[in-house]
Amino acid sequence: MVIVYNKKFFIMIITKLIILALLILTFFIVSYVIIFREVPMSFSNIYYKLKKYGWLLQVMLFSIAIITLISWLDLTKNSSTQFLAFLSPMAIMFVALTPKFKPNKNSSEDEIHLIAAIVAFSLSLIWTLIISKSYVIFGLMGAISLLSYRLWPMDSDGKDTKIFWGEILGFYSLLITLLIESFKHL
Q1: Closest CA to 145 of 177, 172, 174
Q2: What are the domain boundaries of the chain?
Q3: What is the pLDDT, as a whole number, of residue 3?
Q4: Per-residue confidence at 1, pLDDT binned at 50, 70, 90?
Q5: Which of 1, 4, 86, 114 lies 20 to 30 angstroms, CA to CA, from 108?
């Protein structure tokens, strides 16, 4: 049996996976806001709010990381920036696997979580801005995040939500840029 690699078909699958990641992320955020009637302080804070269902955040983050890894690696094939396509999703996986960001004397999970989150955010924005030159997407998502922060600056505990809106900027800028890049390859 001979398997023939059809690039166009594979890119169509990648495009659908990126759309799936956007839907998973949006569904998760909208569900949280509807159920808890608040905008969270950060994605990581959702883990504590969900209590025994905190694993849902981990599954969501891991799903997005896997989809992003597969899509991004293929879209940056033969590129000198492919290491970004590997490191950023891997850092998201570390965030998913270490969801407890609150300081804990008995564990280094909080430090791993913080470092992984910073690495994931930084590398994805570097690629989005410098490599793919998606200034319009980043600017649009930045404006939406800033407007949203103006509308919902605090969560129900009175904590600032700017980290959450920064995370929204990072996730959506990356996913929308990947989607546009996948359309370019069709």
Answers
A1: 172
A2: 7-184
A3: 65
A4: low
A5: 86
